[in-house]
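Minutes, project check-in
Item: structure for the 250-residue chain
Input as provided by the requester:
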Amino acid sequence: MPPLHALAIFAAGIAAGGINTLVGSGTLITFPVLLAFGYAPVTANVSNTVGLVPGSVAGAIGYRPELSGQRARALRFATASTAGGIVGAVLLLSLPASAFKDIVPAFIVIALALIVLQPRIGRALESRRSREKHEAGPLAMLAVFATGIYGGYFGAAQGIMLLAILGLSLPTENLQRVNALKVVLAGLVNLVAGIIFVFSAHVAWLPALLIAIGSIIGGVAGARWGRRLPASALRAVIVVVGITAIVRLV
């Protein structure tokens, strides 16, 4: 691998780790970079999933204060996320590679739409949070399970989906505690999918390692300082990268 390619993948890993901790769309950074350097779409997706796991762990550790008191809730949702992640990973490996290449551009469009609409989603969550007082029910669990399937299959903007679901389901919690729970659940999906991929798919290990190291740095930075970044600038970067990925796939 040329040194410049390695540096770009490492830098993408840092950016993805931070973005995943803050919002949840880091795949839209690393996945297009791997595509640009010639990796097949499924190999790029598998290697990206494996590489982002350590960054999720780092982000969750950084959010320990916000996770305090959420153990029972996290375990309940973790069951749905883990099951969904397994189903999504199995679907990725079972369906033909051509299906992935055909489906993913539509997923990226959905992910980009969610990123653009994220401010409105946030305002809607705050409004609902001030009006309603209830805990998550079966519908929320089903939605988290469905998000896990999506995350195990591809995963871009999985975090934004989880933020919307959890925010609507846990209206009494502040958004930082909801985001901390999101980091844990999205990380679990990546973990179970990554384990399956390690044993059943072709992983490009050097890119995965570079992303892993970078994502740890990004995850720590995102938990500590990333909230200071202008949200509009972050969204703009992700949208540009996502459009590049669509062009590359189509």
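Outcome recorded: The two ends are 25 Å apart (CA to CA).
No further action items on this chain.
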